[in-house]
Amino acid sequence: MTTGFHVSNEGTRLHPVASLLTTAAVPVSPTTLHSFDVFDTLVTRTTWRPEDVFLLLGSRLHAAGLLRTKPELFAAHRMAAEAALRAAPGTEEVDLHAIHAALAATHGWGMAEIQRAMELEVEVETLCIRPIAANVARLAALQAAGAEVALLSDTYFDHPSLLRLLARAGVTVPAERVFASAPLQATKRTGLLFHHVANELGLLPTQISHCGDHPHSDLAVPHRLGIDATHWLDGMPTRHERMLHAGAERHPALLRSLLAGAARVARLSPGPLTPHERTLWNTGATVAGPLLCGFVLWVLQRARAMGEKHVHFVARDGQVLKAIAEILLAGLGWDIRCSYLHGSRQAWHLPALDGLDETVLSWLSDDAPHEPLRSILARADLRLEALTAPLSRHQMDGAEALDRPVAKDRLRALLAEPEVEIELRRAGRRRRAAALGYLRQQGVVGVSSALIVDLGWHGRLQRSLRRLVEVGAEKGETTRLTGFYLALRSRPEGFAGAEMQAYIEDPRFLKRLNPVLLEIFCSADHGTTRGYRQRADGRFEPELAEETDTRVLAWGLRSLQGGMLAFAHELTRAMALTGNTETESWTAALRDAGVAAYDDFRRDPNEAEALAFGTFLHADGQSHDAWSECAPLVAQTARLRLAFGLRVPGYTGHWPEASVRRDGGRLGEGLIALKRLRVRLLARMASARA
Fold it and tell me: Can you give the residue ranges of every domain in the chain?
């Protein structure tokens, strides 16, 4: 890609894309030289568009006293000056000095100011440059194998500046093999740079193999010259990145650009991956990462505003959230400690039990249609020998009955029996001492205040935790417990908004959020917390269903988390570029952009996303005895019904949009198109009624 923003009038039709690469090859001689474009092929910028770097440059010039206009206005001046110089007859290439000299009259610069402005532009570019790992790895592999390589760039930078940018991105090539158009006055766009390289190295065009991102300069022109040309397309913004940028449209231009750019850079940051791993990584970088990083940044801001120094991230959702928090805190320099708190409904509801209230009834009965009765009773630590009479009265005794699910109303009737409630209280007391020991050890019980972080939905877990905190308090101890959640569909009775705070309150999001997808994003590498035990040394530790969740690791959890954490790292660097002074603005932009990208992903997955996430095995009951795919394959008639939002009897999935898209083909594309049409029609009808 050119570093300037000239668009050639000589268009070219793209060749069909069979994969991520489009190749137009007419080899005549064996390849002797492998050449690469530089910008958006080997390196890229952490901004949405290359020219958005000028927004940041404008801020730096203003801080240096070289600018009296707004940074946004300077960016427009900078682009206009370059465009005017390029439009001059006979111009092959422009250089940085000529551009800033053209700006001098507008901004009242002398030679010293021109020089300083040029230096600042190179500094800003250096701060924003990032490697495109897959292509850098390919370049390094070619060099390691003894192949001859060269880098060709249509750029206004001089040779030393271009070398500086490459070094910053970790691209190592002999200086004499880096060819910049400005000092040579020869561009790829016209073909002169390819001729120069061939003559300089004594090669025929047919002995050169070139790779780049521009359809004209890197594909059509070299192909016309007889050069084997590969059009690299991965650097193009994805639909999720475009959605991030569009979703943040009401926010400052620089933040909006850096946010979408951070997602793109994070997506391009890993080396070679399998197609499945790539889908998971990309989703982490461009969908889950922006949504969850915004949530975690908001949590840290709220904790800081409250003067709190310690935040507890509740398992298992909290595993990746804590990792994100630690990355953000390292960049922000805030003095807040993060802990991972093992907890679950089973670990907290039972020891907090104080009578058969709705929290306990829901915990035990919600999964009744999918979970064997024996598993439900075991989850509540209920001993069968103590329940012989009530089980017999409700015709639930015997191995066959215990191994089957029961209707929710029948289970609730059983739980209401006096013998069952007595046994539940006993079970709660058996679990309570270890639970309180663990919570006190972790700094949740016996402190003046405690902050917990979880994904959310109904807040029942915090209700049980508050009960445990109250029960475990010693004389004179009072703990203010505050929960931070991505979203809450409801709050338990008696809990004020300040006690349970939600990052996203929009009722439209709450209606369509699809909890299972968000829980997949926050999967952990270990099993659920069953309870707690005391070790020989007196310390307390969690009892986990599995120390290592091999199922989710085999699915590809590390790739998904890798994409999210890559975005978190890029976000910290982006915030640093703005001085870490606008974190509230960042949170607002991340909220809007993250929701937009997530909605796009949830509503309209592509075939690769539907397959990768649709095959995730989700536990259908709290006992984790039964598993099913998130979006299973269904018959064609069922796909049609799901596409129109109709109920499909027996559908066990949690993401009908992905079941429609799985197994692709023309039918899948057609059904998705019908679903989009239905959504648009419903939206228009709702708008008309309003």
Answer: 1-9+21-236
